[in-house]
Amino acid sequence: MFKIKKKKYDINQSNWGTKLTYFTFVMAFMYIPLVILIIYSFNDSKIVANWRGFTIKYYIELFNNDEILEAFYNTIIVGIFSTLISTVLGLLTALALENKKFTGQKILSAMIYIPLVMPDILMGVSMALFYNFLKVETGFITVLIAHITFCISYTTIVIQSRLEGFDYSLEEAAMDLGANRWQILYKIKLPIIMPGIIASALLAFTLSIDDFIITFFTTGRGFNTLPIYVEGAIRRGTMTTINALSTIMIGLTILITISASKFKKILLS
Predict the structure, then answer these.
(1) What is the end-to-end Cα distance of the chain in Å, rounded?
(2) pLDDT by residue (tens digit) across 112-164?
(3) Could you tell me the domains of the chain?
(4) What DSSP letter does each residue of 99-150 carry, written as one string?
(5) What's the average model confidence in pLDDT over 71-95?
(6) Residue 224 has pLDDT above 90, yes or no
(7) How many Å apart are CA 73 and CA 114, to the nearest integer?
(8) How far apart are CA 115 and CA 121, in angstroms?
(9) Mind giving me the DSSP string for 41-101?
């Protein structure tokens, strides 16, 4: 018996070591390129592959570049507004789909999933043709509408997944105590599903600031976002400033993630 137990323990140890190796390889594959990017953002050379010494001049150039600052401002503004609007609409849609008696539930559910399976280039081209048909001047509003359109699907699905685990006996108990529908929504349902709402908002914001294809087809000449500017800078060969910009974006992402995690803990406590 003792030998059998020892053999099982060795097998488990072997599996644990294999899983750790796979995990280490995946993490290294994901994060080593980011580390290299951060290091070379301080490289005193216009050629990215050659290290010529430490410098912060590209960060200074970055903050003195009005075109980059404008693109960054446009990206953040579009991301904030599209996140707020798509999260509210996603919440309302998820609450509507929660009602089994809703007549158009199946049709609306199918429409929600269509942007998830539709290729970005097809969605971008279709929206560009739609704007062209309406003779709408492309710019901030057209990009914002496009971002809201594809973000609603993600926010709705994330909030729906949170609602699936909701205990409806809490609603019944609240109604027995005299609470109306609005009180149940604001004092019971929303606080419970708030982590899902925050998660959907973070996902929508990430998708918005990261989007290139749909933005490319729906933006105009006088309106650039960071992905559009970065693509143009890479084609022109000005990678040094882009490395500094990417490093700052990585830092902001880490800061937002930590802040959201702490905010979630405060809500759950």
Answers:
(1) 47
(2) 888 888 888 999 999 999 998 888 888 899 999 999 999 999 999 999 888 88
(3) 67-268 (1.10.3720.10)
(4) -TT-TTHHHHHHHHHHHHHS-HHHHHHHHHHHHHHTTPPPSHHHHHHHHHHH
(5) 92
(6) no
(7) 30
(8) 11
(9) TTBS-SSTTS---B--HHHHHHHT-HHHHHHHHHHHHHHHHHHHHHHHHHHHHHHHHH-TT
